[in-house]
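seq as requested:
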Amino acid sequence: MSNKLRILKAEKMNAEFKTVLNESEIVDIENYCRSVDYFALEQSLGFAEILYKSKVNYFLLWDEGRILSFCQIYENFRVAHIWYGPVCNDRESVIITIDEIIRHYKQRGYWYLGIQMNLKTGPDCDFIEYQLNRRHRIKYIFDNNNTKASLELDLSQTKEDLLRGFRKGHRSDVKKAISSGISVEEGDEDTVRAFLRIYRRMCDVRSIKGHTSSEVVRIIEYLKSRKQGVLLVAKTSDGAVLGGAIFVYQGISVRYLLSASDPDIRELPITHLVIYKAIETARETGFRYFDFWGYNHFAEKDDQIYKINSFKKGFGGYYTFFAKKMNINLIPGGYNIYRLFVVMKKLWGKFPIRSSTIL
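struct tokens:
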């Protein structure tokens, strides 16, 4: 077990890197992550292993036995990435965390560190970026891979105001689905199997790679076992599954993860109703936001992503923007070496990025 502890005397904190966590640490981390307002699924212990094979290094910032910051760092050869982390509510602790991680990977001879924070733009984000750019070589790129945006609903509104914010066509589609006798309920063992068949058929019809059936099952089981999300399915009055969607609980937000509807039944607005019910349930449960998690402002009109954008925008809400991805050179030209490394891996075709490594 790798366990590197560094005492930060000025701040009276301990910075720790670990490759293996014991049971007590797992409990502490999970309790800490549940206590913060913003916590992305990508930083949930054990989730990344469902989809990726990259080595994981865990960072913890302690203050007298209390966790101040946590993140999982994904390592691949001489490249490291943090996706939607660190998990932290305090901007000063975020800065200390990133400083320590940069120092750690420089010492280990890494070329490049990429950090996509789970932080929306605003004063705290600006302060963090200003402080870090004063002492580190950070490169920002304005494209969809490095500039993430989303669409969010404020659930403090009344149910009527939320529905009023929907596009007219979306409101009509929700009413049409309800009047046709479609019901929405939490998925069970039988409906999960039906949803999987629909999901894979939809991917095949649309020529989308998507996730494997095994991956989707493991995602659903993972979320259910941890009470961290839910699969909602749409059913006819005689119990036939028409489609569904997976939603994740992330602090004070509910995140729309993925959905599928029967490609042979296009006349019924199945996903419209499922998302509407998810929004309604999230509001009633006490969540503050509903996050559609992803809005590509770079999509062209003839791109399928553009249509997905339009579908999401039909539910109303407002745009949010994440902190731009920090591309950090740990050696001179580190980012360029990383990009070359990615291209070479694609050319070799031995390591499909989505299914094997996080780059």
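The chain has two domains: 3-148+322-356, 150-320.
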